[in-house]
Amino acid sequence: MPVFGFTRFERFFLAAGSVEVNRDDMKRFLDFVNEIIYDILIRGQANAEANGRDIIQPWDLPITAGLQETMHQFRKLDEDIELRPILDDLTARPPLAYALSEETEARLPEIFGGSSVALARTLKIIEPGERHIQPAEWDRAFRIFDLLI
User: Fold this and answer.
1) How far apart are CA 134 and CA 123, in angstroms?
2) What is the end-to-end Cα distance of the chain in Å, rounded?
3) Can you give the residue range of the structural domain that contains 144?
4) Residues 6+ apart with CB under 8 A from 112
5) What are the φ and ψ backbone dihedral angles of 20, each rounded to 5 degrees?
6) Does the pLDDT at position 144 exceed 90?
7) What is the per-residue pLDDT across 69-105, written as a single tens digit (0 to 9) for each?
């Protein structure tokens, strides 16, 4: 990740959860959030198929109320930090059997951002007194998300 992108993510994690990140954390973070997006798209693909379509629409994606709220919070944070242009490039578009509609494609960076807000806040809940989160706490947060998504 370019330095300017990493600096914006540092600011983002501080704003979203009062958490400091380093370059090793960023690799963990990017891999994890892209896994979340893949899981959501796989479920969306199943929903599209169940409804007789071969294009995944936004309403096919299993966006929970909590994720919807963190997506909204991400939009507010992003007004200052301007991560959206970076997320457009970083958000994985995994190969699927079905195509994504333009609207679905456009939502992926917001899902990435909302998942990121949720992760930063989860890390802070796991280690409320720490600003720098250790790898074991990252793994705990990932296991929690794996149970829920």
Assistant:
1) 10
2) 26
3) 3-148
4) 33, 34, 37, 87, 90, 91
5) -95, 140
6) yes
7) 999 999 999 888 888 777 777 666 778 899 999 999 9
CB atoms within 10 A of CB 116: 26
Residues 125-143: pLDDT tens digits? 999 988 888 999 999 999 9
Residues belonging to the chain: 149
Question: For the chain, what is the domain count?
Answer: 1
The string of DSSP codes covering 75-125 is HHHHHHH--HHHHHHHS-----SSEEPHHHHHHHHHHHHHHHHHHHHHHHH
Strand partners, 20: 132
Q: Domain with 12 in it: what CATH number? A: 1.10.20.10
